[in-house]
Protein backbone atom coordinates (compact mmCIF):
# COMPACT_ATOMS: atom_id res chain seq x y z
CA UNK A 1 0.00 0.00 0.00
CA UNK A 2 1.41 3.41 -0.96
CA UNK A 3 1.80 6.24 1.51
CA UNK A 4 -0.99 8.19 -0.21
CA UNK A 5 -3.36 5.21 0.01
CA UNK A 6 -2.54 4.77 3.70
CA UNK A 7 -3.30 8.45 4.34
CA UNK A 8 -6.57 8.23 2.41
CA UNK A 9 -7.55 5.09 4.32
CA UNK A 10 -6.93 6.76 7.66
CA UNK A 11 -8.89 9.84 6.59
CA UNK A 12 -11.79 7.67 5.43
CA UNK A 13 -11.96 5.82 8.74
CA UNK A 14 -11.81 9.07 10.68
CA UNK A 15 -14.60 10.51 8.55
CA UNK A 16 -16.73 7.39 9.04
CA UNK A 17 -16.20 7.48 12.76
CA UNK A 18 -17.22 11.14 12.94
CA UNK A 19 -20.25 10.45 10.78
CA UNK A 20 -21.37 7.58 13.01
CA UNK A 21 -21.17 9.71 16.16
CA UNK A 22 -22.92 12.64 14.47
CA UNK A 23 -25.69 10.47 13.07
CA UNK A 24 -26.53 9.08 16.50
CA UNK A 25 -26.37 12.33 18.34
CA UNK A 26 -24.93 13.11 21.74
CA UNK A 27 -25.28 10.67 24.63
CA UNK A 28 -26.13 13.59 26.86
CA UNK A 29 -29.01 14.67 24.62
CA UNK A 30 -30.49 11.20 24.11
CA UNK A 31 -30.25 10.16 27.74
CA UNK A 32 -28.31 7.03 26.76
CA UNK A 33 -24.65 6.15 26.51
CA UNK A 34 -23.56 5.37 22.96
CA UNK A 35 -20.79 2.89 22.18
CA UNK A 36 -19.42 1.66 18.84
CA UNK A 37 -18.83 -2.05 18.25
CA UNK A 38 -16.81 -3.88 15.57
CA UNK A 39 -18.47 -7.30 15.13
CA UNK A 40 -17.16 -10.34 13.24
CA UNK A 41 -19.98 -12.28 11.59
CA UNK A 42 -20.56 -14.23 8.40
CA UNK A 43 -24.14 -13.42 7.43
CA UNK A 44 -24.23 -16.42 5.07
CA UNK A 45 -23.71 -18.87 7.93
CA UNK A 46 -26.55 -20.70 9.71
CA UNK A 47 -27.97 -18.79 12.70
CA UNK A 48 -26.27 -15.52 11.75
CA UNK A 49 -29.55 -13.67 11.39
CA UNK A 50 -30.85 -15.33 14.52
CA UNK A 51 -27.79 -14.09 16.40
CA UNK A 52 -28.86 -10.51 15.79
CA UNK A 53 -32.16 -11.04 17.60
CA UNK A 54 -30.93 -13.51 20.22
CA UNK A 55 -27.81 -11.57 21.19
CA UNK A 56 -27.82 -7.94 20.12
CA UNK A 57 -31.54 -7.27 20.41
CA UNK A 58 -31.52 -9.05 23.78
CA UNK A 59 -28.81 -6.73 25.06
CA UNK A 60 -30.78 -3.71 23.85
CA UNK A 61 -33.81 -5.03 25.72
CA UNK A 62 -31.83 -5.55 28.94
CA UNK A 63 -29.94 -2.26 28.69
CA UNK A 64 -32.08 0.49 27.19
CA UNK A 65 -29.66 2.98 28.73
CA UNK A 66 -26.94 1.87 26.26
CA UNK A 67 -27.08 2.51 22.52
CA UNK A 68 -24.91 0.16 20.46
CA UNK A 69 -23.76 1.17 16.98
CA UNK A 70 -22.60 -2.11 15.46
CA UNK A 71 -20.48 -2.65 12.37
CA UNK A 72 -20.68 -6.19 10.94
CA UNK A 73 -17.84 -7.55 8.77
CA UNK A 74 -16.22 -10.93 8.06
CA UNK A 75 -12.88 -12.41 7.01
CA UNK A 76 -10.42 -10.13 5.14
CA UNK A 77 -12.70 -7.05 4.99
CA UNK A 78 -12.93 -7.21 8.79
CA UNK A 79 -9.18 -7.47 9.29
CA UNK A 80 -8.44 -4.73 6.78
CA UNK A 81 -10.87 -2.41 8.52
CA UNK A 82 -9.31 -3.15 11.91
CA UNK A 83 -5.86 -2.27 10.57
CA UNK A 84 -7.26 1.01 9.27
CA UNK A 85 -8.81 1.76 12.65
CA UNK A 86 -5.54 1.01 14.44
CA UNK A 87 -3.65 3.28 12.03
CA UNK A 88 -6.16 6.10 12.59
CA UNK A 89 -6.28 5.71 16.36
CA UNK A 90 -10.08 5.79 16.11
CA UNK A 91 -10.81 2.28 17.33
CA UNK A 92 -14.44 1.32 18.11
CA UNK A 93 -15.19 1.03 21.83
CA UNK A 94 -15.71 -2.75 21.78
CA UNK A 95 -14.04 -4.97 19.21
CA UNK A 96 -14.06 -8.65 18.32
CA UNK A 97 -10.48 -9.89 18.36
CA UNK A 98 -7.95 -12.70 18.59
CA UNK A 99 -5.44 -13.36 21.41
CA UNK A 100 -2.63 -12.81 18.88
CA UNK A 101 -2.27 -13.63 15.20
CA UNK A 102 -4.74 -11.55 13.23
CA UNK A 103 -5.04 -9.10 16.14
CA UNK A 104 -1.28 -8.60 16.51
CA UNK A 105 -1.48 -4.87 15.81
CA UNK A 106 -4.25 -4.37 18.36
CA UNK A 107 -2.16 -6.20 20.94
CA UNK A 108 1.32 -4.82 20.26
CA UNK A 109 0.16 -1.20 20.04
CA UNK A 110 -1.81 -1.67 23.28
CA UNK A 111 -4.85 -0.28 21.51
CA UNK A 112 -7.06 -2.22 23.90
CA UNK A 113 -7.30 -2.28 27.69
CA UNK A 114 -6.32 -5.01 30.14
CA UNK A 115 -9.60 -6.67 31.12
CA UNK A 116 -8.30 -8.51 34.18
CA UNK A 117 -8.85 -5.51 36.52
CA UNK A 118 -12.48 -5.36 35.37
CA UNK A 119 -12.97 -9.07 36.09
CA UNK A 120 -11.31 -8.70 39.49
CA UNK A 121 -13.41 -5.68 40.41
CA UNK A 122 -16.64 -7.56 39.63
CA UNK A 123 -15.50 -10.80 41.25
CA UNK A 124 -15.71 -12.71 37.97
CA UNK A 125 -12.25 -14.26 37.69
CA UNK A 126 -13.43 -17.60 39.12
CA UNK A 127 -16.28 -17.70 36.59
CA UNK A 128 -13.90 -18.45 33.70
CA UNK A 129 -11.62 -21.28 32.69
CA UNK A 130 -8.18 -20.24 34.01
CA UNK A 131 -6.57 -21.29 30.71
CA UNK A 132 -8.64 -18.58 29.01
CA UNK A 133 -7.37 -15.81 31.28
CA UNK A 134 -3.63 -16.12 30.66
CA UNK A 135 -1.74 -13.07 29.32
CA UNK A 136 -1.94 -12.72 25.56
CA UNK A 137 0.36 -11.15 22.95
CA UNK A 138 -0.03 -7.74 24.59
CA UNK A 139 1.32 -9.18 27.85
CA UNK A 140 -2.10 -8.93 29.50
CA UNK A 141 -5.71 -10.05 29.01
CA UNK A 142 -6.52 -7.98 25.95
CA UNK A 143 -9.69 -9.88 25.05
CA UNK A 144 -12.06 -12.00 27.11
CA UNK A 145 -12.25 -15.27 25.13
CA UNK A 146 -15.29 -17.28 24.11
CA UNK A 147 -13.37 -20.43 24.99
CA UNK A 148 -10.47 -22.57 23.82
CA UNK A 149 -10.27 -23.21 20.08
CA UNK A 150 -8.91 -26.16 18.12
CA UNK A 151 -7.79 -24.68 14.83
CA UNK A 152 -7.68 -28.19 13.36
CA UNK A 153 -10.62 -30.56 13.08
CA UNK A 154 -11.02 -33.33 10.51
CA UNK A 155 -14.64 -34.17 9.77
CA UNK A 156 -15.34 -37.70 8.47
CA UNK A 157 -18.18 -38.83 6.21
CA UNK A 158 -18.30 -42.43 7.42
CA UNK A 159 -21.10 -43.28 4.98
CA UNK A 160 -18.83 -42.48 2.03
CA UNK A 161 -16.07 -44.61 3.56
CA UNK A 162 -18.38 -47.58 4.14
CA UNK A 163 -19.85 -47.37 0.64
CA UNK A 164 -16.34 -47.66 -0.76
CA UNK A 165 -15.12 -50.43 1.53
CA UNK A 166 -12.97 -48.08 3.61
CA UNK A 167 -12.64 -47.26 7.30
CA UNK A 168 -11.34 -44.34 9.33
CA UNK A 169 -7.55 -44.19 8.76
CA UNK A 170 -5.14 -44.51 11.66
CA UNK A 171 -2.05 -43.40 9.70
CA UNK A 172 -1.21 -41.00 6.91
CA UNK A 173 -0.26 -43.95 4.72
CA UNK A 174 -3.76 -45.40 5.13
CA UNK A 175 -5.30 -42.02 4.25
CA UNK A 176 -3.07 -41.74 1.18
CA UNK A 177 -4.06 -45.24 0.05
CA UNK A 178 -7.67 -44.01 -0.28
CA UNK A 179 -6.80 -41.66 -3.15
CA UNK A 180 -7.16 -44.07 -6.08
CA UNK A 181 -10.23 -45.76 -4.59
CA UNK A 182 -12.15 -42.52 -4.02
CA UNK A 183 -10.89 -40.57 -7.03
CA UNK A 184 -12.05 -43.40 -9.29
CA UNK A 185 -15.58 -42.62 -8.08
CA UNK A 186 -15.13 -38.86 -8.52
CA UNK A 187 -14.82 -38.34 -4.77
CA UNK A 188 -12.16 -36.12 -3.24
CA UNK A 189 -10.27 -37.53 -0.26
CA UNK A 190 -9.89 -34.39 1.87
CA UNK A 191 -11.79 -31.21 1.18
CA UNK A 192 -10.36 -27.82 2.20
CA UNK A 193 -10.79 -24.22 1.08
CA UNK A 194 -7.23 -22.95 0.68
CA UNK A 195 -7.63 -19.81 -1.40
CA UNK A 196 -7.32 -17.68 1.75
CA UNK A 197 -3.68 -18.12 2.71
CA UNK A 198 -4.28 -18.55 6.46
CA UNK A 199 -6.40 -21.68 6.13
CA UNK A 200 -3.71 -24.30 5.36
CA UNK A 201 -1.38 -22.79 7.96
CA UNK A 202 -3.92 -22.58 10.76
CA UNK A 203 -6.16 -25.56 10.07
CA UNK A 204 -3.62 -28.25 9.08
CA UNK A 205 0.01 -27.15 8.94
CA UNK A 206 0.08 -25.97 12.56
CA UNK A 207 -0.94 -29.47 13.64
CA UNK A 208 1.72 -31.04 11.42
CA UNK A 209 4.39 -28.73 12.85
CA UNK A 210 3.30 -29.59 16.38
CA UNK A 211 3.49 -33.32 15.69
CA UNK A 212 7.00 -33.13 14.17
CA UNK A 213 8.42 -30.29 16.25
CA UNK A 214 6.84 -31.12 19.59
CA UNK A 215 4.47 -29.15 21.79
CA UNK A 216 7.34 -26.84 22.81
CA UNK A 217 8.62 -26.06 19.31
CA UNK A 218 8.01 -22.34 19.71
CA UNK A 219 9.81 -22.11 23.05
CA UNK A 220 12.82 -23.89 21.53
CA UNK A 221 12.71 -21.63 18.49
CA UNK A 222 12.55 -18.48 20.61
CA UNK A 223 15.45 -19.75 22.73
CA UNK A 224 17.58 -20.31 19.63
CA UNK A 225 17.72 -24.08 20.15
CA UNK A 226 16.15 -24.91 16.77
CA UNK A 227 15.71 -23.20 13.39
CA UNK A 228 13.17 -23.33 10.61
CA UNK A 229 15.80 -24.88 8.35
CA UNK A 230 16.08 -27.89 10.67
CA UNK A 231 14.52 -31.26 9.85
CA UNK A 232 11.35 -30.79 11.95
CA UNK A 233 10.17 -27.86 9.82
CA UNK A 234 11.51 -29.01 6.47
CA UNK A 235 9.79 -32.39 6.94
CA UNK A 236 6.56 -30.56 7.84
CA UNK A 237 6.72 -28.71 4.52
CA UNK A 238 7.61 -31.94 2.73
CA UNK A 239 4.46 -33.55 4.08
CA UNK A 240 2.35 -30.70 2.72
CA UNK A 241 4.11 -31.11 -0.63
CA UNK A 242 3.26 -34.83 -0.58
CA UNK A 243 -0.34 -34.17 0.45
CA UNK A 244 -0.80 -32.02 -2.66
CA UNK A 245 1.28 -34.11 -5.10
CA UNK A 246 -0.47 -37.35 -4.10
CA UNK A 247 -3.90 -35.68 -4.35
CA UNK A 248 -4.81 -36.34 -0.73
CA UNK A 249 -5.81 -32.68 -1.02
CA UNK A 250 -6.45 -31.50 -4.56
CA UNK A 251 -4.48 -28.49 -5.79
CA UNK A 252 -7.77 -26.97 -6.97
CA UNK A 253 -8.54 -26.21 -3.30
CA UNK A 254 -6.23 -23.21 -3.77
CA UNK A 255 -9.02 -21.68 -5.87
CA UNK A 256 -11.79 -22.39 -3.34
CA UNK A 257 -12.91 -19.53 -1.09
CA UNK A 258 -13.19 -20.13 2.62
CA UNK A 259 -16.31 -22.02 3.67
CA UNK A 260 -17.71 -22.36 0.16
CA UNK A 261 -17.25 -26.14 -0.21
CA UNK A 262 -18.71 -27.39 3.07
CA UNK A 263 -21.85 -28.37 1.22
CA UNK A 264 -19.81 -30.60 -1.12
CA UNK A 265 -18.49 -32.51 1.88
CA UNK A 266 -21.94 -32.78 3.45
CA UNK A 267 -23.25 -34.18 0.15
CA UNK A 268 -20.59 -36.88 -0.13
CA UNK A 269 -18.28 -35.29 -2.68
CA UNK A 270 -15.36 -35.59 -0.25
CA UNK A 271 -14.71 -38.23 2.39
CA UNK A 272 -13.05 -35.82 4.83
CA UNK A 273 -13.13 -32.09 5.45
CA UNK A 274 -10.49 -30.09 7.35
CA UNK A 275 -11.26 -26.77 9.02
CA UNK A 276 -11.25 -25.27 12.51
CA UNK A 277 -13.61 -26.50 15.22
CA UNK A 278 -15.78 -23.42 14.73
CA UNK A 279 -16.91 -24.76 11.34
CA UNK A 280 -19.02 -27.39 13.10
CA UNK A 281 -21.66 -24.68 13.45
CA UNK A 282 -21.97 -24.43 9.67
CA UNK A 283 -23.26 -28.01 9.49
CA UNK A 284 -25.83 -27.68 12.27
CA UNK A 285 -29.44 -26.59 12.09
CA UNK A 286 -30.24 -22.96 11.41
CA UNK A 287 -32.79 -22.11 14.09
CA UNK A 288 -34.42 -19.55 11.81
CA UNK A 289 -34.97 -21.79 8.78
CA UNK A 290 -34.93 -25.24 10.38
CA UNK A 291 -32.48 -26.34 7.67
CA UNK A 292 -29.07 -27.99 8.19
CA UNK A 293 -26.21 -28.95 5.89
CA UNK A 294 -26.07 -32.18 7.90
CA UNK A 295 -29.27 -33.25 9.64
CA UNK A 296 -29.08 -34.30 13.30
CA UNK A 297 -29.87 -37.88 12.26
CA UNK A 298 -26.96 -37.89 9.80
CA UNK A 299 -24.68 -36.20 12.33
CA UNK A 300 -25.31 -39.16 14.62
CA UNK A 301 -25.16 -41.98 12.09
CA UNK A 302 -22.85 -40.92 9.28
CA UNK A 303 -20.30 -38.37 10.48
CA UNK A 304 -17.45 -38.23 12.96
CA UNK A 305 -14.79 -35.78 14.12
CA UNK A 306 -11.11 -36.73 14.35
CA UNK A 307 -7.60 -35.32 14.12
CA UNK A 308 -5.25 -35.88 11.19
CA UNK A 309 -3.96 -39.47 11.41
CA UNK A 310 -0.49 -40.47 12.60
CA UNK A 311 2.31 -38.79 10.63
CA UNK A 312 5.63 -40.55 9.90
CA UNK A 313 8.27 -39.34 12.35
CA UNK A 314 5.93 -37.51 14.70
CA UNK A 315 7.38 -36.91 18.16
CA UNK A 316 4.06 -36.27 19.91
CA UNK A 317 0.81 -38.12 19.31
CA UNK A 318 -2.91 -37.39 19.45
CA UNK A 319 -2.46 -33.64 19.19
CA UNK A 320 -4.20 -30.81 17.38
CA UNK A 321 -3.24 -27.15 17.10
CA UNK A 322 -5.16 -25.05 19.57
CA UNK A 323 -5.25 -21.60 21.06
CA UNK A 324 -7.27 -19.42 23.38
CA UNK A 325 -10.32 -18.46 21.39
CA UNK A 326 -11.52 -15.19 19.98
CA UNK A 327 -13.47 -12.79 22.16
CA UNK A 328 -14.06 -9.16 22.94
CA UNK A 329 -11.71 -6.31 23.77
CA UNK A 330 -12.18 -2.72 24.88
CA UNK A 331 -10.60 0.33 23.27
CA UNK A 332 -7.80 1.94 25.25
CA UNK A 333 -9.19 5.31 24.15
CA UNK A 334 -12.09 5.07 26.59
CA UNK A 335 -11.57 7.32 29.58
CA UNK A 336 -11.18 5.38 32.83
CA UNK A 337 -14.30 5.68 34.95
CA UNK A 338 -16.38 7.16 32.12
CA UNK A 339 -19.94 6.16 31.23
CA UNK A 340 -18.66 4.84 27.91
CA UNK A 341 -16.12 2.57 29.62
CA UNK A 342 -18.81 1.25 31.97
CA UNK A 343 -21.17 0.62 29.04
CA UNK A 344 -18.45 -1.16 27.04
CA UNK A 345 -17.66 -3.44 29.99
CA UNK A 346 -21.38 -4.16 30.52
CA UNK A 347 -21.57 -5.30 26.89
CA UNK A 348 -18.45 -7.48 27.13
CA UNK A 349 -19.77 -9.13 30.32
CA UNK A 350 -23.02 -9.88 28.52
CA UNK A 351 -21.30 -11.23 25.39
CA UNK A 352 -19.14 -13.57 27.50
CA UNK A 353 -21.81 -14.27 30.09
CA UNK A 354 -23.85 -17.41 30.68
CA UNK A 355 -26.75 -16.43 28.41
CA UNK A 356 -24.73 -15.75 25.24
CA UNK A 357 -22.23 -18.56 25.79
CA UNK A 358 -25.13 -21.00 26.23
CA UNK A 359 -26.64 -19.77 22.97
CA UNK A 360 -23.27 -20.14 21.20
CA UNK A 361 -22.93 -23.68 22.52
CA UNK A 362 -26.42 -24.64 21.34
CA UNK A 363 -25.74 -23.33 17.83
CA UNK A 364 -22.22 -24.79 17.68
CA UNK A 365 -20.49 -21.42 17.46
CA UNK A 366 -18.09 -22.12 20.33
CA UNK A 367 -17.54 -24.11 23.50
CA UNK A 368 -17.78 -21.95 26.63
CA UNK A 369 -15.03 -20.34 28.64
CA UNK A 370 -17.65 -19.41 31.23
CA UNK A 371 -17.69 -22.14 33.88
CA UNK A 372 -21.32 -21.44 34.73
CA UNK A 373 -22.30 -23.09 31.46
CA UNK A 374 -22.59 -26.83 32.15
CA UNK A 375 -21.95 -28.42 28.76
CA UNK A 376 -22.85 -32.01 29.63
CA UNK A 377 -26.01 -30.97 31.45
CA UNK A 378 -27.16 -28.89 28.48
CA UNK A 379 -26.41 -31.71 26.04
CA UNK A 380 -28.57 -34.07 28.11
CA UNK A 381 -31.38 -31.74 29.14
CA UNK A 382 -31.82 -29.81 25.90
CA UNK A 383 -31.08 -32.67 23.54
CA UNK A 384 -28.46 -30.68 21.65
CA UNK A 385 -27.46 -31.86 18.20
CA UNK A 386 -25.03 -34.81 17.99
CA UNK A 387 -22.22 -32.60 16.67
CA UNK A 388 -22.17 -30.78 20.02
CA UNK A 389 -21.62 -34.01 21.94
CA UNK A 390 -19.11 -35.30 19.38
CA UNK A 391 -17.25 -32.02 19.57
CA UNK A 392 -17.07 -32.34 23.36
CA UNK A 393 -15.62 -35.84 22.97
CA UNK A 394 -13.12 -34.52 20.43
CA UNK A 395 -11.71 -32.03 22.94
CA UNK A 396 -11.30 -34.81 25.50
CA UNK A 397 -9.40 -37.00 23.01
CA UNK A 398 -6.56 -34.67 22.04
CA UNK A 399 -4.02 -32.33 23.59
CA UNK A 400 -2.98 -29.08 21.92
CA UNK A 401 0.13 -27.65 20.32
CA UNK A 402 0.56 -24.01 19.23
CA UNK A 403 -1.21 -22.44 16.28
CA UNK A 404 1.48 -20.83 14.14
CA UNK A 405 -0.26 -17.47 13.77
CA UNK A 406 -1.01 -17.51 17.48
CA UNK A 407 2.66 -17.44 18.52
CA UNK A 408 4.62 -15.98 15.59
CA UNK A 409 4.55 -12.37 14.45
CA UNK A 410 2.69 -11.59 11.24
CA UNK A 411 6.01 -10.79 9.52
CA UNK A 412 6.90 -14.47 9.96
CA UNK A 413 3.61 -16.33 9.68
CA UNK A 414 2.61 -14.41 6.57
CA UNK A 415 5.76 -15.75 4.90
CA UNK A 416 4.75 -19.25 5.99
CA UNK A 417 1.29 -18.68 4.50
CA UNK A 418 2.80 -17.67 1.15
CA UNK A 419 5.26 -20.58 1.16
CA UNK A 420 2.45 -23.07 1.79
CA UNK A 421 0.47 -21.74 -1.14
CA UNK A 422 3.51 -21.79 -3.43
CA UNK A 423 4.25 -25.39 -2.42
CA UNK A 424 0.65 -26.22 -3.29
CA UNK A 425 1.16 -24.64 -6.70
CA UNK A 426 4.46 -26.43 -7.22
CA UNK A 427 6.31 -23.11 -7.31
CA UNK A 428 8.51 -23.64 -4.25
CA UNK A 429 10.38 -26.58 -2.77
CA UNK A 430 10.20 -27.37 0.95
CA UNK A 431 13.89 -26.54 1.39
CA UNK A 432 13.50 -23.20 -0.37
CA UNK A 433 10.43 -22.42 1.71
CA UNK A 434 12.18 -23.25 4.96
CA UNK A 435 15.07 -20.95 4.07
CA UNK A 436 12.66 -18.09 3.34
CA UNK A 437 10.83 -18.57 6.63
CA UNK A 438 14.12 -18.68 8.54
CA UNK A 439 15.16 -15.41 6.89
CA UNK A 440 11.83 -13.81 7.84
CA UNK A 441 12.30 -15.01 11.42
CA UNK A 442 15.87 -13.65 11.64
CA UNK A 443 14.81 -10.32 10.14
CA UNK A 444 11.97 -9.98 12.62
CA UNK A 445 14.24 -10.85 15.57
CA UNK A 446 16.82 -8.31 14.42
CA UNK A 447 14.19 -5.54 14.37
CA UNK A 448 12.47 -6.39 17.65
From TrEMBL:
UniProt-recorded name of the protein: sn-glycerol-3-phosphate-binding periplasmic protein UgpB
PANTHER family for the chain: ARABINOSE-BINDING PROTEIN-RELATED, SN-GLYCEROL-3-PHOSPHATE-BINDING PERIPLASMIC PROTEIN UGPB
Compartment list: Periplasm
Organism: Bullifex porci
Annotated family: Belongs to the bacterial solute-binding protein 1 family.
UniProt key word Ribosomal protein: no
Oligomeric form and interacting partners: The complex is composed of two ATP-binding proteins (UgpC), two transmembrane proteins (UgpA and UgpE) and a solute-binding protein (UgpB).
Primary location class: periplasm
Record's signal peptide: 1-23
Pfam families in the record: SBP_bac_1 (PF01547)
SUPFAM superfamilies: Periplasmic binding protein-like II
GO CC term, one of those recorded: periplasmic space
Protein keywords: Signal, Transport
Amino acid sequence: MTRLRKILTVCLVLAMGMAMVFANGSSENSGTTTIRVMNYIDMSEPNSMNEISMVWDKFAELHPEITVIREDLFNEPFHQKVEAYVASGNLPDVIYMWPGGRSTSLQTTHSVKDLMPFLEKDGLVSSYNPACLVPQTAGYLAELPNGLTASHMMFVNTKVLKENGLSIPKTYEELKAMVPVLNAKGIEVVGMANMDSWVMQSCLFSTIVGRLGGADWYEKLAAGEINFTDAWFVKSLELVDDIYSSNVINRNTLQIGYGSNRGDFANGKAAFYIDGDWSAAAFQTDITTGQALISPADQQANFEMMAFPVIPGEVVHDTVSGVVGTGWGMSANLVAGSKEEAAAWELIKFLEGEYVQTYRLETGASFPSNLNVDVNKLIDEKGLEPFVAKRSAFYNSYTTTPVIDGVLHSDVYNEINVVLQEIGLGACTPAQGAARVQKAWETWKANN
